[in-house]
Amino acid sequence: MTAETDGPGAPATTTTIAIVDDHEAVRLGLRAACGEAGYDVVADTADVPTLLAVLDDPAVEPARVVLLDLSLGDGSRVTDNVRAVLATGSQVLVHSIADRVAAVREALAAGAAGVIPKSAPTSAVISAIATVARGEALNNVEWASAIEADRDFAKAQLGRRERDVLHLYASGLPLKLVAQQLGIAHSTAREYLDRIRAKYVEVGRPAPTKVDLLRRAVEGGILPGLDAEAGDARR
Questions:
Q1: Which of the residues bear the PTM 4-aspartylphosphate (predicted)?
Q2: How many Å apart are CA 232 and CA 128, to the nearest integer?
């Protein structure tokens, strides 16, 4: 299956998807919607161990994005599920009941790229998958609510210059231009960035990519809040 559209919410090229939900009707509905949107659904399973077994088959394409039910009926922990899926190289988009704020926060802390409520229209789910497939963080109202519920959620204590570097870099500037704007050497800017990442690792919120740093900057109030209408942040 190939999709060659660049329209909003649709993949520019074929994007492989996997679905994990313990309700068969939900899986069937999501599979149909993803197929209509041009995605290639490589697996749909009721739990993560079954998904891992399917993806371990060399004949099955890796899933770029896994749409993961927040609370599965097998008693598994959301942190374990998210980390297990991330270990396959897939991005995780959590499909959540809106009132599970603590569990959503746990999923985000484990590395999920975002959360989309089960009450969201199908078009919003498809758009969210497209955002995550592009490697971008899905910054929406649900994501913001999880962070707002705990203002001290995994904040790293950054110094003033570190905050300046993070603000400019996470806003989209290349590190060379960040250094120029702050009047420091490129190597110094790199040292600040390395320190920032180390501090986030210390609080259990590693930020290896620029998108991760964007998320941390929003969480810490270093960058402005989220645009609920836009629904996602651009690099």
A1: 69
A2: 8
Instruction: Quote the DSSP letter at residue 159.
Output: -
Burial class (CB in 10 A: 0-12, 13-18, 19+), 122: middle
Tokens of 232: 């996602």
Percent of the chain with pLDDT over 90: 45
Enter the DSSP assignment of 149. T
Query: Which of residues 230 and 196 earns the better pLDDT score?
Result: 196
**Closest of 27, 140, 139, 42 to residue 88, by C-alpha:** 42
- Residue 62 to residue 138: CA distance in whole angstroms: 21
Q: Spell out the residues 6+ positions from residue 37 whose beta carbon is closer than 8 angstroms to its own.
A: 3, 9, 10, 11, 126, 129
* Long-range contacts, stretch 185-190, CB < 8 angstroms, 24+ apart: 189/165
- The single-letter code of the amino acid at 186 is H
- Rounded to an integer, what distance in angstroms lies between the CA atom of residue 129 and that of residue 150? 26
What's the gap between Cα 182 and its chain centre? Answer: 30
Q: How many CB atoms lie within 10 A of CB 86?
A: 16
Type of residue numbered 107:
A
Give the mean model confidence (pLDDT) for residues 42-68. 95
